[in-house]
Request: fold
Amino acid sequence: MRWRALTLAATGLLLACTRPEPAARPVILATTTSFQDTGLLDALLERFAAEGGPKVKAVAVGTGEALEMGRRGDADVLVVHAPKAEQKFMDEGHGTRRRALWHNDFVLVGPPSDPAKIRSLRSAAEALAAIAKADALFVSRGDNSGTHIKEKELFAAANLVPWAHYLSAGQGMGETLRIASEKQAYCLSDRGTFLKLKSTLALEQLMESEPPVMNPYHVIEVSLAKHPKVNAAGAKAFADFLVSGSTQSFVARFGVDRFGQPLFFPDASGGPVEPGR
Reply:
């Protein structure tokens, strides 16, 4: 009987040692909607999978909500575009590494009739002031995204507060542009998303600021020390893929064949980003 018990125990141990490990859970990516709406996210996830990377589950939200997901430990890696908010996240100890990815810029779009006459202006703050003075309809994302944060910075620079015909959509970039199109309203958009959706919208790009209102994107790995349940290995693998030379070269070409210009311009050097960038 004792021999049989030992045999069964040894057999159980052998089976435990040879049983395949359950697949690691997907890497949870919290990302800005513009990354998704431009089509770049799907293209890069396909390339990452083809290179043997772990499965990634993307949750497209505004940058503010993406950072909150990181603070709660509900995401493993973030792709976001609000530098001051990102730096605060890092200072609080929620991120282990923050690296530059790419950038584009913000543009003001609106109805071809341009009732506020902003087409000839060269300052985003000046153009927003003209829209407010004309009491023209303006649709804001209103979701604490990177775009909404930049809009609030521009409002502050122009000493503006929302006016009678200011509409807060509470939506992602693509849906906000569609609302602006339906209502023939002005809107602040990242250039990449507008270029991708332009053919479906009754809007025109009416002005771009000189110098441009820059829109930098970064990848942040959520801290394992702060949030013990994060998939740190998967987050690092995906972040390393995003800053790799081959991915950056792909980003530099993405959109050129269709739009005559890239939707994003690569920035990655592989190292950490200096505070405030």
About this structure: The longest strand covers residues 204-222. Strands lie at 27-32, 56-61, 77-80, 95-110, 138-140, 166-168, 187-190, 204-222, 265-266.
